[in-house]
Here is the input.
Amino acid sequence: MVAIDLHSHSSASDGSCSPEELVSEAAAAGVRVLALTDHDTVTGIPAALSSAEPLGLRLIPGVELSVTWEGRSLHVVGLGIDPTSPSLNEGLTRLGAARDERAAAMVDRLARGGAPIAGVLDRRRGLTRTHLAKALVDAGHSRDLRQAFQRWLARGRPGYVAGRWAGLGEAVGWIRAAGGTAVLAHPLRYGLSGSWMRRLLVAFRDFGGEGLEVASGQGGPTEVATAAGHARRYGLLASAGSDFHGPDQPWLQLGRLPPLPGDLKTVWEARGWAA
Ligand code: AMP
Ligand code: MN
Ligand code: MN
Ligand code: MN
Here is the structure.
């Protein structure tokens, strides 16, 4: 267990805990510094901030932006943002519209493929694939989330539609305009070869990206060592975040992260957030 967790989700996006529940779960797990980083939205931040204060937990306002780069989908986490920033909010409005358009296209494809989940679009805006996966389970088309992704929603499966997300430079720009530090999330989850990883990290840094998520809830010591090598090579600050989505995804736990190598400079040291 570590005291710092800089990547988590609430029900403002695809997490299953409300912002208040997330904060109290984090405090109970011994987390002292928590970033709320919902997908393409900052609507959970005010509630998270006000419930964190009496618990003595430091809540870092954050966001996880969806990016399309060279035909791939990537995630850039913004940490220590001002959630009221006008340029960030213009970007979030655009991403929200892209989410709504893509969710409608996916629901259409699912219906044509024999898995209708009518009604899910009326329930809320900004749907993610996690919401569609839950609807597939509720409608009896899949046994669980894992199977819903494997059968329908993963890239290349019949219900998948690529989102028209932000450009990499745009996303980094919105985060910086909001006073935040841009961190490339879970870098080993994109299936990039060495040369593509180099292209991505050089482009990210040239746009003003400063951090790399070196420790993530899913990887172990091997993944940390690989990502740490990238952080050193490209001069990026190290970040660490579980990517917690709720107790229903027990393989990701708040604050449960492999340790970072001691020589790396961390985002929390650079920003003065150390617990
Ligand atoms: P989206 O941004 O709408 O494409 O949704 C991406 C989200 O889906 C991720 O942030 C994860 O929370 C979730 N997700 C993606 N792949 C899987 C999977 N194989 N199993 C469970 N959740 C997944
Ligand atoms: Mn998610
Ligand atoms: Mn992500
Ligand atoms: Mn995430």
About this structure: Residues 9, 14, 39, 128, 130, 245 surround manganese (II) ion (ligand 2) (CB under 6 Å). DSSP finds ten helices and seven strands in the chain. The CA atoms of residues 28 and 159 lie 38 Å apart.
